[in-house]
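FAQ: What does the model actually see?

It sees only this:
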Amino acid sequence: YFQLAFGLAMILPLDKNVRFGLLCVACVPGGGLGHVAVVISKADLPLSLTMNLISTVTMLGNIHHVFVVVE
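And it is asked to produce this:
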C-alpha cells in the first residue's frame, strides 16, 4: 500500500498535510475497520489487535521516510 500512496503523493498536487496523512494511513492499512470486521465475523480479536499493534510500531519505526517525502 505504501508504494501506491507514495506514487499518488508524488504525482498529485496535494497539500503537505494531506500528503503526510495519506502516507501515514498507507503505513497502517488495518485501521479500526479491520477490528469491526473481526468482531462481526467472530474471528480471533486478540490476534487482530496484536497484528495491528505490530503494524503501528513498524509504521512508527519507518516514519522518517514519510517526513522525507513530505518535505
